[in-house]
UniProtKB/TrEMBL annotation:
The keyword Phosphoprotein applies. This is Response regulator transcription factor. The lineage of its organism: Bacteria, Pseudomonadati, Pseudomonadota, Alphaproteobacteria, Acetobacterales. Residues 2-116 form the Response regulatory domain. It comes from the Bacteria. The keyword Transcription applies.
């Protein structure tokens, strides 16, 4: 998941970036509202985290301009003001949530997860596709209640596919999701990640959920037949040979 952090205080921005990155988010930072609007035009974000006090404009004004420009990305505002009027103004402008400073980092991350889930149409943290269950909060994956151990990149690819099930995702979309335009490797690395992810899911018994759309990219589907875990299948075959 990718977050745009709009925070004018350098120290606060560094702390927030560390909190979000430790929770598994990819974070882009700017200290200016005008630059944030430009970044929203060119990049796909899952959440905008906006401080109320920015150098060039009020955070509520940034949210208002986002909504006028019809940016669909959810917005969370961080407010150091003790006045209810400031928080109400942010909500009226179109903010999805307002968090007062100082805040508990665990609560902030939980609120971010909740807003992202709602924006994708999910009220609960667990998303199910066939026998596969993905927990958006704990970033864990199970197949038929058995854990599937994925690398960070493999999980991020699966998360994007699950949240956009039925949509063809290009390799550019995956690169943007994984690296955010910074130090991107060659595009063929996506094929490598998807191949390894497919193998792990098949071994776990999830079948071939990830379809290849030739010349376009990949898509998650839940109509593929499931299969028993390959370990069990291989064991049965070995027993037949031995017999």
């Amino acid at each position: 998941m990718r977050v745009l952090l709009v925070e004018g205080d350098v120290t606060a921005a560094q702390g927030l970036t560390a909190i979000l990155q430790n929770a598994g988010f990819l974070v882009d930072h700017t200290d200016m509202g005008v630059e944030a609007l430009e970044m929203l035009r060119h990049y796909d974000y899952d959440l905008t985290l906006v401080d109320l006090d920015l150098p060039d404009m009020d955070g509520s004004e940034l949210v208002r301009r986002m909504r006028i420009a019809r940016h669909p990305v959810p917005a969370m505002v961080l407010s150091g003001s003790t006045q209810a009027a400031a928080r109400i103004r942010a909500l009226v402008a179109g903010a999805d949530d307002v968090v007062a400073k100082p805040f508990d980092s665990a609560e902030l991350v939980a609120r971010v997860h909740a807003i992202m889930r709602r924006s994708k149409g999910y009220s609960a943290p667990i998303v199910q596709v066939g026998p596969l269950e993905l927990n958006l909060d704990s970033r864990s994956v199970t197949v038929d209640s058995r854990p599937v151990h994925l690398t960070g990149k493999e999980y991020s690819i699966l998360e994007l596919l699950v949240l956009r099930k039925g949509v063809v995702l290009t390799k550019d979309a995956f690169l943007n999701h994984l690296y955010g335009g910074m130090d991107e490797p060659e595009m063929k690395i996506i094929d490598v990640f998807v191949c390894k992810l497919r193998k792990k899911l098949q071994i776990a018994g999830a079948g071939n959920l990830i379809g290849t759309i030739w010349g376009r990219g990949y898509m998650l589907r839940d109509d593929a037949p499931t299969m028993p875990a390959l370990r069990a299948t291989t064991l049965s075959a070995n027993r037949l040979v031995a017999a």
